[in-house]
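User: Please run a holo structure prediction.
Assistant: Happy to. Please share the sequence and the ligand.
User: Here you go; the ligand is nicotinamide-adenine-dinucleotide.
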Amino acid sequence: MIVVSEECVRAVLSEDDGFNAVEAVFAAMARGDAYNFPVIREAIGYQDALYGFKSGFDRAGLSLGLKSGGYWPGNDKKGLTNHQSTVFLFDPDTGQLAALVGGNYLTAIRTAAASSVSIKHLARSDAKTLGMVGAGHQSHFQIKAAVAQRAFEKVVAWNLHPEMLDGLEKTVVDLGLAFERVEREELAARADVIITITSCHEPLLMKEWIRPGTHIACMGTDTKGKMEVDRHLVATASLFTDEVAQSVTIGEAQHAIADGLVDAASITPIGDVINGSSAGRVSPDQITLFDGTGVGLQDLAVASAVAKSAAERGLAQIVEW
Ligand code: NAD
C-alpha cells in the first residue's frame, strides 16, 4: 500500500484534478453508480473534539474507503489545524488497504470544487461580480476555484470578523481581480454569483435582497442547526444539491424543509444536471441555489486521483502491509 503525506498531497493535487474528480463523482452519484454510507459524527468527550467517518463506494470510479477525522478546537494553540482528517482507500477487488492519504488540504480543494461545479452548471454565463460571505480558511480556496468558471472581474465581500478580510483581499488581488468590502445587502445587490462559507446559525442573506438571475452556493451549512441564508430564499430559489438526503437534514435546506416551505422532491441533485437528465438554469432571471453539504465520495474521488498521481510520479511512500 502507499502513503501520501499532507505535503505530498499539496505537491500533486491541482485544482483542475480536484474539480474533475468531484464533477465525475457527482455524476456517478446521480446515475446510481456511487453511494455514500451513513455518516458518523460524535462528540467524544475529550479535548472538546468532534470525530467521525464519511465513507462510500463509487462503482464507476472504483473508489472505496472512508475519510476519518473531525475538529479539535485546541489545535491552533499547538500550531496545528483544528480540522484534521485522513483518507483510507481500499482495493475494491480484494478489500485490502490500498492507500493512506492526508485529508486536510484535500478537504479544502474538494469543497471548493463543489461550489465551482455548481457555478459551471448553474451560474449565468455573463457573471462578472462574485460575492463572498465568509473569510475563513475555506474562503480562499472557494474564490480560487470559482474564478476558473466565469470571467469574474471583481469580488465584493463581507465577513462577521472584518479583520479577516485583509487576507481575502490579498488572495483576490493576487488573482488579478478588484476587491471591495461591502455590507451584506449591498453584496446581494451587486453580486451575480454568491458563495457563503461561514459557521453561522442564522440567516446572513435575506430573500428580498437577492437579484433575479443570481446563483448562490451555500457551502458552510454542513450540520444540524447551522444556517447561512433566509429560509424564504431557499423556498423561492431553484434548489440543487450534492446529495438530497444530506441537504434536507444537515444542509441549508433543513430549515425550509422543517417549516414545510420546501418539498425534498423539488431539490435536484447537481449530478442530474451534469448528466443532462435535469435542466439546470432555464432562464436568465432564475435564482439558483446550490446546497453544498459535503459528501464522503468527494473525498474518496479526489484521494483516488491524488494516490494515482503520487504513485505515477514516484512521490508516494510504498509500505509493506
Ligand atoms: P474558519 O473557522 O476558518 O472560518 C469561519 C468563518 O465563519 C469565518 O469567516 C468567520 O468569520 C465566520 N463566522 C463564524 N461565526 C459566525 C457567525 N456567527 N456569523 C457569521 N459568520 C461567522 O472555517 P472554514 O474552514 O473556513 O469553514 C467555514 C465553514 O464551512 C465551517 O462551518 C465548516 O464546517 C464548513 N465546511 C463545509 C464543508 C462542506 O463540504 N460543505 C467543508 C468544509 C467546511
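The longest strand covers residues 50-58.
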